[in-house]
Amino acid sequence: MSAEAPSDTFLIDVEHFDSPDAQRLRAAQRIEIDSTYGADTEPGPKPTADSIAVFFVARDEAGTPVGCGGLRLVDDGIAEVKRMYVRTESRGSGVAALILRRLEEAALDLGSPALVLETGMEQKGAIRFYEREGFRRIANFGPYVGAARSVCFSKIL
After folding, report:
1. Minimal CA–CA distance to 63: which of 15, 99, 11?
2. Rounded CA separation 36/88 (Å)
3. Phi, psi at residue 96, to the nearest 5°?
4. Is the dihedral of CA 21, 110, 81, 40 positive or negative?
5. Is residue 1's pLDDT more than 60?
6. Per-residue DSSP letters for 7-61?
7. CA dist., res. 140 & res. 148, Å (int)
8. Which tens digits make up the pLDDT trace of 30-85?
9. What is the pLDDT of residue 109?
């Protein structure tokens, strides 16, 4: 698939944070991140079904889960992107941008004026993706203040 894949190539729907497919996607993300950093280095409280306002799972034409992402509300009603992930074999297909669009729409529906997020310094592809999607680097916020391996971004909606 090309980066210009039509949106009808993927189905992106709200799904419970703890659904089996959501758990498998998050587990795959955890393995990838832990292999990059040698351990779980995520600062702050981990997202839970109770703390995530909305969670999406993306599926390809065959119904296979290929990506996910959620929102957690933080200070002043700002929405934080959490557990944004696309399986390696689906990267470059355009699904990440489609998931991000759904997250932006959901944030607006929740009344959030902006999105914030944290990613790791070694996740160069993620950094390039967020910058390409209009996010700007900001000072580390909340639990990421002082976290040397974290880089934070924001986008006004």
Report:
1. 11
2. 14
3. -60, -45
4. negative
5. no
6. GGGSEEEE--TTSHHHHHHHHHHHHHHHHHHSS----SPPP-TTT-SEEEEEE-T
7. 9
8. 999 999 888 878 888 899 999 999 999 999 999 999 999 999 999 888 999 999 99
9. 97
Tell me the one-letter amino acid at 50: D
CB atoms within 10 A of CB 143: 14
| Residue of 65, 70, 57 lying closest to 89 (CA atoms) | 65
Q: How far apart are CA 105 and CA 140, in angstroms?
A: 24
Identify which of 10, 2, 24 has the alpha carbon closest to the alpha carbon of residue 101: 10
Dist. CA 88–CA 76, nearest whole Å: 34
The letter for the amino acid at 129 is: F
The predicted pLDDT at position 8 comes to: 63
Q: What is the largest CA-CA distance in the chain?
A: 43
pTM: 0.92
Q: Which tokens belong to 53? A: 């306002």
Q: Mean pLDDT over all residues of the chain?
A: 93
